[in-house]
Each structure stands twice: as C-alpha cells, then as structure tokens.
Amino acid sequence: MEIVLAIIFGTLFGFVLQRVGAADPDKIINMLRLKDLELMKTILLAIGVSCVLLFAGIAVDVISVDHLSVKPMYAGVTIGGMILGVGWAIAGFCPGTSIAAIGSGRKDALFFFLGGLVGAGVYMAMFANFKDSSMMQPLFGGAVSLAANAKFASIISDVNGVVVASVIGLLLITVAAMLPMSLRK
C-alpha cells in the first residue's frame, strides 16, 4: 500500500511542479536571478502553509512529532548543498524538478538527472575515504532544531516549537503575499 501511495502522491507532486513552472529551467533561473518572482512566491506560500498546517496538526495531536526527524548538520552536507545550489542555478533543475521535467519530455533534464546519479555513485564510492574526517563530524552539537520540542536539543528553548514554526510559516506567507510578480521595470 505504501508504494501505491508513493506513486499517487509522487505523480500529484510532479503535476503540481509542472503546473507552477518549477520544471521549467528558464523559470527557475529567472527566479534565482530575481527577474521573475512568481515561482518564488509559490514556493514561499507552499512552505508557509505546510509549516502552519503541520505544526497545527502536531498541536492538536493529529500528527505525532515522532514522524519528524532532525538530521545533524555536517560540513560535508553544507559543501554538498552549495554544490547542489550552483548546479541548480546553472542547469535550472534540482533532483525533484528534473524528474518532473523528464515526465514532460525534456532531454536536458534527463542528462541532469543522470549526472546526479553519477554524482551520487561517486559519493558512495568515496564515502569510506572521508566518513571519519572532520567533514562528517556533526556541527553545532548534532541534531539541533530551531525550537523547543520533546525530541531534540533546540536553539530557542524557551518558546514552544509549534509557536515558533507557526510564526515562521505566517512570515513566509506574508512575504509571499508582499513579493511582486516581477522585479523587471
């Protein structure tokens, strides 16, 4: 049943990515150049609404905090994130949007996706060489969340995590509402 749900929700997610333009590399590159903010508005709104709904669900015990996890931050993850960001800015795809773009027939997305698989393979092959290095040692005490919760250490320990997450979500929604569609004059 889980695989069926994964296929259904993955297909729906791909449809939404395609519909909002997140599978269009020109739209992504123009967003990153701050020329076309429509996609940025959509992303900020989606994150904000999801954040508020998720933590509202936690507050009323509809969603268990046990389903959430906080991964430790490593220097290697930070470096990898920067490499991913540069690749995203150059190609106009990230791993998820490339799959949606492949579904729409974009050959450049297929090459991007295959390149990502090669990169992941190289990482796996080299991991044993640097798994004990300082690049893979947890930064800032390991798994640390922004706000107080029952499971992880937090940066803001005096305020309930639901409150912090809801404020952040509402701020993202507000920023999305205030952003213009374009910065072009």
Structural topology:
Elements lengths: L1 H19 L4 H8 L5 H22 L13 E2 H17 L3 H9 L3 H24 L7 E2 L4 E5 L4 E8 H18 L7
Parallel strand pairs: 3-4
Antiparallel strand pairs: 1-2
Notes on the structure:
The protein is mainly α and about 180 residues long. The protein has one domain. Helices cover about 65% and strands about 10% of the residues. It contains 7 helices and 4 strands, in the order H-H-H-E-H-H-H-E-E-E-H. The strands form 2 sheets. The chain has a two-stranded antiparallel ribbon. Helix 3 runs antiparallel to helix 7. The longest helix is centred in the middle third of the chain and has 24 residues. The radius of gyration is 19 Å and the shape is globular. The protein starts with a helix and ends in a 7-residue tail after the last helix. The mean pLDDT is about 85.
Brief sketch in words of this structure:
Helices cover about 65% and strands about 10% of the residues. It is mostly helical.
Return the string of H and E elements: HHHEHHHEEEH
- Number of continuous helical runs: 7
Query: How many domains, as an integer?
Result: 1
- Class inferred from helices and paired strands: mainly alpha
Uncertain parts: none
Can you tell me the overall shape?
globular
Q: Order of strands side by side in the largest beta sheet?
A: 1-2
Strand percentage lies at: 5-15%
Q: Estimate percent helicity.
A: 55-70%
Query: How many beta-strand segments?
Result: 4
First-last Cα distance: 51 Å
- On the 0 to 100 scale, the average pLDDT is 86
Radius of gyration: 19 Å
**Major beta sheet summary:** 2 strands, antiparallel
